[in-house]
Design goal:
The chain has about 140 residues and is α/β, with parallel strands linked by helices. About 25% of the residues lie in helices and about 30% in strands. The chain has 4 helices and 7 strands.
């Protein structure tokens, strides 16, 4: 388990960048946290490690998935608006999860039964004074 405290957007992006160094093709990362906890900023950091400009990364709330090409492909899911896991299956989520590239999934509990067991979980929460707590772990 790794734990970090972020006091700014830039720091959250930097933590994501550093975390990206440990990722490899086929990894699935679940980003869990309330609205505004910094999940998309964390994804910007991971994407920047793979050579993707952070400015190109945005939340795929309405499209469900954004694909970014870099040194390694990054697939950014946002499951917030999903009503049923079937919707994730219809966009081919499992093919992404078991394919090449790195998958980053916001609101993963909406499709939890589809998430691979070996997925890495990043839990983000609000702290006082606009800080964020970031915990990275394997699910038990």
């Amino acid at each position: 388990m790794q734990q970090f405290e972020s006091s700014s957007v830039e720091e959250t992006i930097r933590i994501g960048f550093e975390f990206g160094k440990q990722l490899k093709s086929g990894d699935v990362v679940c980003l869990d946290g309330d609205l505004g906890a910094g999940k998309t900023h964390f994804v910007k950091g991971v994407a920047s490690f793979f050579g993707i400009e952070p400015e190109k990364v945005s939340s795929p709330t309405y499209t469900l998935i954004h694909e970014y090409s870099g040194d390694l492909s990054v697939y950014h899911f946002d499951c917030y608006r999903l009503k049923h896991e079937q919707e994730a299956l219809e966009i081919g989520a499992e093919e992404y999860f078991y394919g090449d590239g790195v998958c980053l999934v916001e609101w993963p509990k909406k499709i939890e039964s589809l998430i691979p067991e070996e997925a890495i979980w990043v839990e983000m929460s609000h702290l006082p004074e606009d800080k964020r707590n970031i915990i990275i772990h394997q699910k038990q």
